[in-house]
Queue: 2 jobs
Job 1
Amino acid sequence: MQEKEIYTTADGSPTFYMQALDEYYHSRHGAVQESNYVFIEKGLAHWRSLHPTAPSCSIFEMGMGTGLNVLLALKASLSQKISTKMTTIEAFPLSADLVLKEDFSAFLSPEELHFFKTIHESEWEEMISIQEDFQLKKVNTKLEDFSFDSSYDVIFYDAFGARTQPELWEDEVFYRLAEQLRPGGVFVTYSAKGSMRRALEKMGLAVERLAGPPGKREMIRAIRTSSR
Ligand SMILES: C[S@@+](CC[C@H](N)C(=O)[O-])C[C@H]1O[C@@H](n2cnc3c(N)ncnc32)[C@H](O)[C@@H]1O
């Protein structure tokens, strides 16, 4: 894809910036802060609060990017004792060499930094055990070409914004993703786009507008409250 440069966000954590598209991989207000708030706190931890005794959780992520959400999901899974299987898809993988130039030393423990490296150096297209209770499958594909063969408890929707990739914010995308959500499952994204909200509601999900992370007024979470 485009040339990328490391950008230090407001909380001190790094992300990538693509000048050609004027697009960032995370919020400029704080990469770790945004990922933790949107995907972990409002997504995975919320699912956990709805299913406190579930023995396992399956996560699907659209847009692996730098792997930060994967690492934070691993961290949360270990601390909350959730046995997790995560599938993350990425159309334009960043090389491990490039991603590992990001300096997360102020945010991650040595053990977490080691996991981050393992995530990036692990094989694609195979379910790999990153840690005993955290299995990861990285798939190099476009969402449009991905065939779902499973349903999920949690979906992280982390595409670039509609200004850059309008095709990833069409109603059909959300109809398709809503189909993959298990009863009691949680879909979460940093965006509060009205058309997405209506598409998810049309699919029978209970949609909530939540306060967004710093720098963002609102975000969306949607839950499949019953089986169809
Ligand atoms: C906002 S970034 C994701 C950030 C990421 N979750 C992280 O923690 O670093 C969006 C990602 O979606 C990827 N992408 C763009 N178009 C895609 C498509 N059609 N299918 C799958 N991934 C796509 C981009 O290459 C980029 O890595």
Note: The longest helix spans residues 31-50.
Job 2
Amino acid sequence: MQTISEREYQSRRERLGKKLKQNSLALVCAAKPKIRSNDTEYPYRQNSNFYYLCGIEEPSSALLFIKKGKKCRVVLFVKEKDATFELWNGKVTGVKKACKRYKVDEVCAISKLQSRIEKEMREINRLYYEFADTSDETAILRKMGSNVYAHANLSKMIFKMRLYKTPAEIELIRQGMQITKKAHHHAMRMCKSGKKEYELQAEFEYIFTKNGAYSDAYTTIVAGGDNANTLHYIKNDKELHAEDLVLIDAGCEYNYYATDITRTIPVGGSFSSAQKEIYALVLHVEKEIIAMVKPGILRSKLQEHAERMLCEGMVRLGILRGSVDKLLKKRKHKKYFPHGIGHYMGLDVHDPCPYKTKKGKEIPLQAGMVLTIEPGLYLPKNDHSIPKKYRGIGIRIEDDILVTKEGYENLSKEILKELEDIESLYEGCSS
Ligand SMILES: [Mn+2]
């Protein structure tokens, strides 16, 4: 299994250190465990920014950057060895081992963080930390620095670094994609009239876990028929009907990297002619937009073009009436395609990297970025302005695209989406 090398984490920390102003402190902390109820916790998930800088999965850890003049020192704080804690919760790395394992300037016990910050702040006049961070460690820093120093939101600086994926990161996304592919194809085979949506959800969770994916990258959406017209439908508790489509938006998180794939398939194994018409339109638009991806292009151009093509298609099918230009101007098409054409993806499924510069200028796509392309059409059952045969159809098709120097690479191209391929997958499976 490929992971990110210690050398790569070190170079990320060095790059961040160079961005900090002189005489400053920057603190990035591990995520705080979250209580589910009483004394049970949600499964722990590391803070993506902290993980990006060191790959450490343990809570109660922190990175302190101390920049004096041009020199930046990185101190790692970890939980100290504690036999009682470890009896219940498993081994922790501890200071001694962390010293050997991580290429930082110094390793200290997390219990020493406060006194260390106090000491360093005698000479420091600028603080960087993640403004939204709720960890106890950041709370210490925030409290000590209140009113006295210049503050800056460290999150944004790290988000900017995360915009461009390295070959090692892309490799992890590729590995995760193999698992997500397996799960989607498995679900296509298991899909059957009379099953509950959550039964298909369970197939995804089974394949993800069985193949070593940490979890899903977001809550799986299994939306049969008209449920697909609720964009974030996650109840997944209804029965699937042979005559309906089912929209499945699901991707695993593998080694902290997300995948995000949507396929819409016929429950009964074949598309009706009305379903085919909508599907063919969405698929055509998806492919056209993917083909436009290349360095220099603006995401807003992709959005605009997708909206125009979907609007033209809807006029052709009689879903919208009037001139395409006028409909676009009045935003009439947004009723049936209300969302964005895609988003960045990485350590977070919606990677929070910047879409605009500080001055508000849109950032064009560049090699190394990863984004989803996901057009959809959502035609609610109770919308009587739509021709009857289309009512209750909701279709989205979503792939994950790497921007390359030459143009793009579709990282999920192996996950079936052609009408005939999906239908023949059912034929190949008799159960
Ligand atoms: Mn998505």
Note: The chain has 13 helices and 19 strands.
